[in-house]
């Protein structure tokens, strides 16, 4: 599958990396030995002290690499708890399950839904999996706070899952769920469809749950107590039909079991299922079905019991409606249960409020978008909001000073995720794009997310790129990709979002952030510096170039986008330089708002956006575009190599290795694509720059970057266009259309179209056409496939990679709104 980019994030041997720092340490030790000789006469005591100091220095550097930043946290303690932020305490913060809720606490009690269609070959559904092959699922509406409505289409079944919250009490309020199950489409099966819905409550290492049974088998309610919820009660109401009548016949089962952790809940339920049950409605059509029976333990699981699971199963015929209420013991006077007609009214009120707020925020109706396209945009925003998660746990970090990974102290992260099925966890540069959209919907929410991310910073000023916090997140990542390497950066795209938030952010907020922003900037400015003044270089490229057509640069976020064929310390990376220009500008603006010294940042901003210097360092005449510089050969290929046979052994499988037809030399990298556009994308080029014309020409040329579906990542006439990197690595950023970069392109074109300059008209025309193409294709693909996708084919427009991908692909909402 193509969508392995971030999983591969931490792969490979890292010995070759961060040599400078290791060399520095070695020099220090040699110096220490010399000093030892000189001071021998002064006695061993002093010498021992000297080496102790050196050891201490090294120990301290190693500790800093993996310890938290010393500044006060960007989020004041308790800021996200039920006292300070009751309105956000409960939420659909479990994006990796189809439907579930939890609180923003480290070891939250969780609730969730599973289902099973009672027919041959049907599978238990719980966590979002691409392999489930659902026709579509996702939030149709979600306000990011108190209400959401989701439709799930699963082979003839339509499940609508809705929640609504109600403030009250001292523990983050109360909520209700409504799950409506119907036949999907006209084609009903020969038998009236039978379905089981499983509602559960589970603990995560703290709190107690008590079942309340009716008639021996129906789990009517669960009462419980936990650290941050106090006393509470979850009630599973009796199902009704669409019209509100009682369902004529259904069957109840329940499970009371212990799981090694939340990440094993599906296994616990699956292993408790038995097919010995018979559905016997009064009309006589008896049939066998599957239900939870006795839990007999997980095969091979010796892990301690950690999560108490109580699960209510109801099996019934379609259509049916089931409601669940969560009530807090701290609510003294309740106006009555939030269920039935009261719930219907509340849901309707929230729907209307969502519609209104959506139009007020994005104005798509006003712009003339028809209803189906507005619903598409609402779904895109809602899925980003409904994809927000709260994660808690420890990252595994590794610095060049450590032989083994070290775990970072426990941290919580409140963040959106790129994909509920494939990347249900936080990714640093993705988040910058996510917050561009969310900052428009709810600036307060965005400010909180940015602060959460900055609080993950280490003492050195590094923020690990991929956040795998807690067992559930970990369960989705192969072990070899878990460790994060402390010399690997990632674009500081969060600063794009911060720039948008600066105007309305309270000074007290900025003041808390500022020391961390400064450290982040310094870390980038020093650890990723390039070979010449005002140049930059991504660290951590694949160290073993012979294995790849072009060694990847995961740090850049653009993974396999072609760079210098032979990684070296002489490289200068254009995109990173442009990111640093943006970072300098945002730091300067923040400093000015706080009346802190801003001149060092302004100075950097001026130097990095000096168009003449930019051209000297990065303009490649032969390419007619900006480019990276490095030790590069334009003539490389992959060849199948048959290993030499050893007598008595089976012949080794042939493998692809790289062949270099022409030796590399220091030069500009011959690739025209997204990286070449960065001075335009981040608007460093002056509107009167003579380089604007060739870039606009490349962008509008069908043989190069223009496609009817958006700008492609790599020129069609580039030698690496759509080339595999190894036999297992299909092309990724080598031609496909990516929405985050297209958003930046539109933003820039919109800007150039508004400023006087010789290319104003051309920018405006390109802007209109690109915007039209992008909206048109994303909408069409969504209507046809049911999803937003990770990237799009530049030849057919088809969605590719992981899905649903309502991370940065949801920026299409801002494109529709022309909000840049
Ligand atoms: C960034 O690094 C350069 C080169 O080391 C240095 O001259 C400059 O002062 C630094 N800028 C800031 C704002 O720290
Ligand atoms: C470029 O790479 C080749 C192959 O690794 C190496 O032999 C050569 O010294 C490098 N040239 C420079 C200038 O780094």
Please give the largest β-sheet.
8 strands, antiparallel
CATH architecture of one domain: Distorted Sandwich
Low-confidence stretches: 1-39
Number of strands: 33
Q: What's the alpha carbon Rg, rounded to whole Å?
A: 29 Å
The helix/strand class is: alpha+beta
What name does the CATH topology of one domain carry? Answer: Beta-galactosidase, Chain A, domain 5
Distance between the termini: 33 Å
CATH class of one domain: Mainly Beta
What's the overall geometry?
A: globular
Strand content: 15-25%
What would the average pLDDT be, to the nearest integer? 92
Structure ligands: 2-acetamido-2-deoxy-beta-D-glucopyranose
Describe what you observe in this structure.
With 820 residues, this protein is α+β, with helices and mostly antiparallel strands. The chain contains 18 helices and 33 strands. Helix 14 runs parallel beside helix 16. The relative contact order is 0.10. The N terminus is likely disordered. Bound molecules: 2-acetamido-2-deoxy-beta-D-glucopyranose (2 copies). One 2-acetamido-2-deoxy-beta-D-glucopyranose binds next to helix 10 and helix 12.
Keywords, please?
820 residues; alpha+beta; Beta-galactosidase, Chain A, domain 5; 8-stranded antiparallel beta sheet; 6-stranded antiparallel beta sheet; 18 helices; 33 strands; globular; disordered N terminus; binds 2-acetamido-2-deoxy-beta-D-glucopyranose
